[in-house]
Amino acid sequence: MRKMLAALSRLMQGPAAAAAAAAAAHKPGAVSEVARVVVASRNYADFATEATFDIKKHDIHRLEEGPPTTAVMTREQGLQYYKTMQTIRRMELKADQLYKQKIIRGFCHLYDGQEACCVGLEAAINRTDHLITAYRAHGFTYTRGVSVREILAELTGRIGGCAKGKGGSMHMYAKNFYGGNGIVGAQVPLGAGIALACKYFSKDEICVTLYGDGAANQGQIFETFNMAALWKLPCIFICENNRYGMGTSVERAAASTDYYKRGDFIPGLRVDGMDVLAVREATKFAADHCRSGKGPIVMELQTYRYHGHSMSDPGISYRTREEIQEVRSKSDPITLLKDRMVNNNLASVEELKEIDVEVRKEIEDAAQFATTDPEPPLEELGNHIYYKDPPFEVRGPNQWIRYKSVC
Q: pTM for the complete prediction?
């Protein structure tokens, strides 16, 4: 093995590097050292710059044709998608750990398993476009530009959090991101309002409005569909169907589980939400539909959450461990992307492992910050009630305590 690696290194690197590798082969731990030399020797020219992939055909409703069934992905895009999804996965696993250590308190809804949805969606829209979602919001908070450090600090209620420690798991915000919303389905009419503003001010912008299968039967969603269709609002309504609303399967909760058809008169798409490329291509198609003035479109992303509904839900009282494991083994979004990249020479296994190590370090550093950063002082309890408003007094826990609210 050592001789083989040394010979390979000579072929790939030239005389000087090959000699160094050969010398290393006689030292303890030589195989791993030579392997690192060989891996390091691969330059960008060794990899394909892009590849074309087949994606699952989308189910369509009230459309003459749907998104393409092939997608081109460059090496750079693939590495970016992989790192982003891996970061979200590790961030959520760290949040799970911090919750079990009682460092994170209150509600906490994790997104692991659904990473392809937010990453594929973000890859297809512009930063100037708008997005609003439900309370499973950590992944979207990250793809909208908030750092892991700020997200974890928000979860632990620290002043360095993206909402200064006062929002927690469900209430994080960024530019053009209107946060996670705790009231089931309430963000859907808000998203239509954002889309109305885009149209009113004649901006070439759209609003992506997300909700879950558990919210899909809410009356306010159908009222919103009606207004959006009448006014031809540039809004993509997306149902993230992870198969369970809290602890109830979709089959037990809905007479019709064809959520992409629920807009009736609004066109719809059903998409493999575990495939980042399928999500990306479908979202591009939907965004073009909205920007062209045709009005709203409904998308259903068929996905799966690995954790329970929230951290108070073990997630195995209404489904089996075997079901979860089967999804992990056959449909995991990160593994699917990894296999595509390696099998099409867009990246090496070793290169992706290096990304994994880098991501783990980033998460650990962020967790260290999130557990040592101070909590916001009590004096700031009344701050940020209004945006750009003169300071005013707010009553505290009792009528004799007053705080001055500032922006």
A: 0.88
